[in-house]
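#lab-general

N.A. 3:47 PM
ok so I finally got the sequence cleaned up, no stray characters, all 294 residues accounted for. can someone with queue access submit it? mine expired

B.Y. 3:52 PM
send it over

N.A. 3:53 PM
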Amino acid sequence: MIICRFTHDGRTRLGVVVDAEEIADLGGAGIATDVRLVLEADAGFAALAGAAGSAPRLPLADVTLEAPIARPPKFLAIGLNYADHIAETNREAPDFPIFFNKQSTCVVGPGAPIHVPRASDMVDYEGELGVVIGRRCRHVTAADARRVVAGYLIVNDVSVRDWQVRTPTMTLGKSFDTHGPIGPWVVTADEIGDPHGLGIRTWVGGELLQDGNTKEMIFDVWHQIETLSTVCTLEPGDVIATGTPAGVGVARTPPRFLRAGDVVRIEIEGIGALENPVLAEPDDTATSLDEPAS
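B.Y. 4:20 PM
back already:
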C-alpha cells in the first residue's frame, strides 16, 4: 500500500493511494489521522487495507499532502554513509556508523517551505531514503531487521552547515524548524522489497545535483537498525534517514547553498517525489513574549 496523510475541506486524515490520480479517503472509517497512531494500534496497517476498499475516492490533485508522520517519536539519521559523499567532503570512511538526532519539530510535509534561517545562509540539501519503524523493538539483529520496518518514505536532511560543525553531535545544524521534509507518503515494506537498489536523485532549481543509488550505502538499512536498537528501544513511527549520496551543495565549487526561490525535488525509485520550495525565514516565526502562552 501507499499511505498518505492529507488535508481536504479543512480536515486532515489518512488515505490510501489507489492509482496515480486517486486516493481512498479513510476519514469516515474510524481510522487514526497519523501513520504513527495507526502503527501503534494492534492491527497496524492491516486495518487500512480493509477500509480502503469501500472508502470514497478523491482526486489526488484536490488534496494537500501532509507529512505522513506529523511528529515522529524519534528522527534519527546517519552521516557519511555513501563512499562518494565521503570522498567529496574529504573525510575518511567511518569504522562505525555515525548517528545523530534531528529534532522532530523540524518535520514538514510535501510542498511546505524550507526556511533559510536568519542565523545562517549555509543551508544545504540531502536527499535520503527514510525508514519507518513499525513495531516497538530492542536488540534486533540485522538478519531480523526487515521484520520491524513498516515502510519507506523520502527525507530531505536539510543541514545548516556552519551550525552543524560547531558541535560534534551535529544536532543543532540538523534541527532548524522546517529542515526535515518527509513524504510524500509511506510505501509499505512489502511494496519495496529490498531497499538496497533504489535510484535516488535530487534537483535544485531544476538542476540535477545528486544521482545515486541506495546499493552504495556503507552501512545498510538492516545494520543501521541493529546498531540503533542495541542502544535504545525503537518505536512505531520512528524515522531513520539512511544517508545521502554525493552532490551536496557544500562540496561544490563554488558551494551551492539553498536560496529563497529555489525548489528542491527528491525522487526515489519505487516511492515517488518529495518537492519543497525555499523561502527566507518569515518575520513572524519569533515568539512574542508579550502574548499569553498557548
